[in-house]
Design a protein that fits this description.
Number of strands: 13
Distance between the termini: 43 Å
Radius of gyration: 21 Å
Structural class: alpha/beta
Order of helices and strands: HHEHEHEEHEHHHEEEEEEEHE
Bound molecules: S-adenosylmethionine
Helix content: 25-40%
Oligomer: single chain
Largest sheet: 8 strands, mixed
Length: 324
């Protein structure tokens, strides 16, 4: 029964709320440290994310933030560091025990951080598939290591919900595992492995397409890091599956007529003798100066077969500075 995996997931996180499990979603992403931010030990032990969704560049002008799937509350505390207003961060979770645990952790954070007040975070009981949040009411909507658990139809619903609650030009920030090898059915439908964020991973292009199909016009791949290996013998798979964790930001801006702009860290450099190169689609390359370009533009420039235009491969660590 497909619905059962959602119940299994709730039970996994009920347990993870009651008994912190340090290795649950262990990641190589360093934990953000900011001046005068002290993260309580219990929040670090309950860091069940697989990357980071906190990026200072997204967080100017005291944004209103939604965070779905609160875990121990560490990222909500980090978001509050930038938002610093009553109810500036809304935390939604479907598991009562997780809401209670994070509430306790915020009290601990209050004791350790003079700038922080628990009222900066408003916790709401609710489901990612039906958010208790008004339309177009938040600037940033984040989730870390929850959406990969959802099967495709539920993932579509969860993404649509994030799109609905974001203001125009607002940002969806996600971190999830991805895998380029196909996930064997035996693992894909293993409710427990899915709930543990191990077997719901999609190939990166499919994951991005799910996001752009909802209507997000711009997507940025901010990081891609090694995450786990599902080894034959230990897992029911005939081949090793390499999981990576990605950090992605998607902007709710209009869809360009020629399709979404997906930035994966590609750069174009003009090496010719003219004053500049103009592709007449909004990109002017100055001699020997790098210009960050989206994959669509990189492909168009490559297709010109112009020896004076060099286009770099994807780094998957894009951090702004481009024009598509
Ligand atoms: C893998 S943990 C990630 C926690 C947190 N984002 C972090 O980075 O530490 C998944 C979180 O999503 C919550 N969750 C599970 N199913 C949910 C659902 N359908 N709607 C909202 N939250 C859900 C769990 O209770 C848990 O807090």
């Amino acid at each position: 029964m497909m619905q059962d995996y959602l119940e299994t997931t709730k039970n996994i996180y009920k347990q993870a709320a009651e008994t912190p499990d340090v290795g649950l979603c262990c990641t190589t992403t360093p934990v953000w440290a900011f001046p005068e931010l002290s993260i309580p030990r219990i929040m670090l032990d309950m860091n069940y994310g697989c990357g980071s969704t906190v990026h200072p560049r997204d967080l100017v002008n005291s944004p209103k933030i939604l965070y779905v799937g609160v875990g121990g509350g560490m990222e909500l505390l980090q978001f509050s560091y930038f938002s610093r207003q009553t109810g500036g961060v809304i935390g939604v979770d479907v598991v009562d025990e997780m809401l209670e645990a994070s509430h306790r952790n915020f009290k601990e954070a209050e004791a350790q951080n003079t700038w922080f007040n628990s009222s900066f975070v408003e916790l709401r009981k609710g489901d990612a598939l039906s958010l208790p949040v008004d339309d177009e009411s938040v600037d940033v909507a984040a989730q870390n290591c929850l959406f990969n658990i959802f099967h495709e139809e539920d993932l579509k619903t969860a993404l649509k919900e994030m799109y609905r609650v974001l203001k125009p030009r607002g940002r969806l920030v996600l971190s999830d595992p991805v895998a380029e090898q196909p996930m064997p059915e035996s693992l894909k439908y293993d409710e427990r492995l899915r709930g543990l964020c191990l077997s719901g991973a999609l190939p990166l292009d499919d994951y991005i397409k799910m996001i752009t199909d909802i209507g997000f016009g711009t997507v940025e791949i901010r990081a891609k890091r090694p995450y786990r290996i599902l080894k034959p013998g230990k897992y029911d798979t005939p081949y090793p599956i390499y999981l990576e964790s990605v950090e992605v930001s998607a902007i709710k801006d209009p869809m360009p007529e020629d399709g979404p702009c997906v930035f994966t860290g590609r750069t174009a450099i003009y090496t010719g003798d003219e004053e500049y190169f103009d592709d007449h689609k909004g990109h002017v390359l100055m001699p020997n100066q790098p210009l960050a370009v989206c994959d669509k533009t990189a492909g168009n420039l490559d297709a010109l077969n112009n020896v004076d235009i060099w286009v770099s491969p994807s780094t998957y660590h894009y951090d702004g500075g481009g024009c598509c």
